[in-house]
Amino acid sequence: MRLRNMGEGVGSRGLAACHGHPGHPDRGDRMGKPVIFTDLDGTLLDCVTYSFEPALPALRLIGEMDIPIVFCSSKTRDEIECCRRNLGNGHPFITENGGGIVIPAGYFDPRIFPVHTTIVRENECLVIRLGASYPALRRAIRELRSEGFRITGFGDMSVAEVAELTKLPRDQARLAKRRDYDEPFLFDGNEVETIKLEKAVWAKGFSLTSGRFFHLLGDSDKGKAVALLIGFFRQKYGEISSIAVGDGPNDIPMLELVDHPILVRQPDGSHNSCVDTPRLIRAEGIGPEGWNSALLGLLSGLEPVRK
Ligand SMILES: [Mg+2]
């Protein structure tokens, strides 16, 4: 079945045209099974209302084409499971900026998992842990504060304070505080102090990233988690066309890895200037509107590969 162009966003431009060049020698022109990795806050979800409604036309098309969507967010497992229920999504997902991968049991043949990977079975899911332990991150936050850095982590805040800061409803803010691998925090400091903070974090063996907040994390990022899943999806489907959508710096490692990286606009209408990966598709539209237009445009050029 050839899919119709849905007539929105990048319109009749298909997958190859979106690149703006004749074709990447070994990535863009292969039409494997599409697999989409997406950030949530500010990307698929509006950064103020957390609504995904503007993305519904593309979500419907993706459902019809039977394309997996993997959520890849700084959100916690509990928060993402809530989104998955709201969107009817049954695919694997990546939590806390790449700290963990959660795979529904039976989704992949367990024989494909690399032997050295630590996989824990929790209820109906398999969990691959890539991130630092949360108590270790909290210890580092306290040490940094005692070294003079004015930082406040989610673990220092009440549910009401996290709700106020994130504009999440209280029940969601409670889920946002249940963390395993990544500590979001506020930092009161100028650019020079931020560089000092970064050095202090590295000296402790941790790393920093930023989305809406700063995040303290271990040796994990969205890219490492996406790379593992791309390997699993290749085992499942053979050739795949990987697509990723994001809005900010913490999405860079994920965007750099995929065949079709997409950057949506920020609330002020600009594209984040830190993100400039090769082959980047700059979507027209803020957050979920950009998500919708870019994916409708990209997928309109694809013959779905069904399996
Ligand atoms: Mg984001």
Describe this structure as you would to a colleague.
This protein is of the alpha/beta class and 307 residues long. It folds into two domains: 15-131 and 221-299, HAD superfamily/HAD-like (Rossmann fold, 3-Layer(aba) Sandwich); 134-217, Putative mannosyl-3-phosphoglycerate phosphatase, domain 2 (Threonyl-tRNA Synthetase, Chain A, domain 2, 2-Layer Sandwich), CATH 3.30.980. 32% of the residues lie in helices and 21% in strands. It contains ten helices and 13 strands. The protein has helices at residues 15-19, 56-64, 77-87, 134-146, 159-166, 170-176, 191-203, 222-237, 252-255, 287-299, and strands spanning 33-38, 69-72, 93-95, 100-104, 119-122, 125-129, 151-153, 182-187, 207-210, 214-217, 240-246, 260-265, 281-286. The strands form two sheets. It has a nine-stranded mixed β-sheet with strand order 5-6-4-3-2-1-11-12-13, with helices on both faces. The chain has a four-stranded antiparallel β-sheet with strand order 7-8-10-9, covered by helices on one side. Strand 2, helix 3 (77-87) and strand 3 form a beta-alpha-beta unit. Helix 2 (56-64) packs parallel to helix 10. Residues 1-29 have low confidence and may be disordered. It binds magnesium ion (MG).
